[in-house]
Each structure stands twice: as structure tokens, then as C-alpha cells.
Design a protein that fits this description.
Strand content: 5-15%
Helix content: 55-70%
Number of domains: 1
Number of strands: 2
Number of helices: 4
Structural class: mainly alpha
Distance between the termini: 37 Å
Radius of gyration: 12 Å
Largest sheet: 2 strands, antiparallel
Amino acid sequence: MHDIYFFNGQDITMNVCIQIHRVINLIQEQENIGFEEATGKFYHSQTYKTLTQVENGLWAENAEYILDCYNEEAKN
């Protein structure tokens, strides 16, 4: 059974899914690549791992901020 996390009455597991989708769309636009390639790149990033650890609250940031975290990670 999967855990469901709530914050201020919201199911944040759904919010995490929405944020993942938004960030992948931004990566697609930024790098001019397809959905599968963008998904693979994001899925293998530390930013993705951090985003899915709901306790840290990254899911609550906007997609552009999360993309900035991803881009900063890619520079290093």
C-alpha cells in the first residue's frame, strides 16, 4: 500500500505528480527534446529524488524553481 501524505488538507502525493509533469514539460521546452528523453533525464537526477521525498517540502515550490534546482545540479 502506498503512503498518502497530507498538508493543509491537500493530498501532496498528487501535487508531487503534478510538479513532476510540469518540470518535465519545462525541460522539454528548455532542451528541445521529447517527453521520454526529458523524463529519463529528470528521473535520474538528484532533484527528482529530493522532490519525491515529500517531507522536505520541495513539492510546494513552483515548477520553475524546481527546474532551476535541476539546472544547477546539471552544471556540477
